[in-house]
Amino acid sequence: MKQMLMWMAASLTVFLVGLGCSSTHQLATETIYDAKVQIEAAKTSDAQNLAPQELADAEQMLGRSEEMLNEGKETEAYRLGMRAQLKARIAAALAVANQLEAKASSTEEELELKLKAAAAAHRDLEQAEQELEELQSTPEE
Predict the structure, then answer these.
(1) Closest Cα partner for 84 from 20, 45, 24, 40?
(2) For residues 23 and 78, is the Cβ–Cβ distance under 8 A?
(3) Residue 100 structural domain
(4) At the N or C end, where does the chain have fewer CB atoms within 10 A?
(5) C-alpha–C-alpha distance, residues 31 and 35, integer Å
(6) pTM of the predicted model, to two decimals?
(7) In a domain, 113, yes or no
(8) pLDDT per position as a tens digit, 29-88
(9) Is 115 a member of any domain?
């Protein structure tokens, strides 16, 4: 009876370890997939031009994560996959921030040009008013 209980406990332990490995493998696989999605989203945000180092880091971590998974190192694969996801999100955020900064700079330059044009128009108006005033103050002959 005691041996049977020991055998059942050992079997249960092996089953739970196997179940844990299986879920770790699935979690690592899902994380790698999510990292790929994040990297593609970063590329869509033009991260390869606006945040190239972060995107390259994410792609390198993803590759290493896939290698770890193929080697059966699910925990390491999961961790690297998570890091790849986060690095890709950083790349996308930097790309968007750079785009918005460029747009703001462009808008600022455009505003500056419009302010200069408005100031020139105001000077022209003042000059025209002054000339009109001079014409009105000269007596008619």
Answers:
(1) 40
(2) no
(3) 27-108
(4) C
(5) 6
(6) 0.65
(7) no
(8) 999 999 999 999 999 999 999 999 999 999 999 999 999 999 999 999 999 999 999 999
(9) no
Instruction: Give the total number of structural domains in the chain.
Output: 1
Within a domain: residue 44? yes
Q: How many alpha carbons lie under 13 Å from residue 92 in its C-beta half-sphere?
A: 19
Q: What pLDDT score does 140 carry?
A: 67
Q: Are 96 and 73 in contact (CB under 8 A)?
A: no
Residue-wise pLDDT tens digits, 77-122: 999 999 999 999 999 999 999 888 888 877 878 878 887 887 887 8
Closest by alpha carbon to 59, among 30, 27, 88, 102?
A: 88
Whether the CA torsion 44, 104, 49, 51 is positive or negative: it is negative
Q: Considering the domain boundaries, does residue 140 fall inside one?
A: no
Alpha-helical runs (H) found in the chain = 2-44, 47-50, 52-70, 74-137
Instruction: Tell me if 54 sits within 8 A of 91, measured CB to CB.
Output: yes
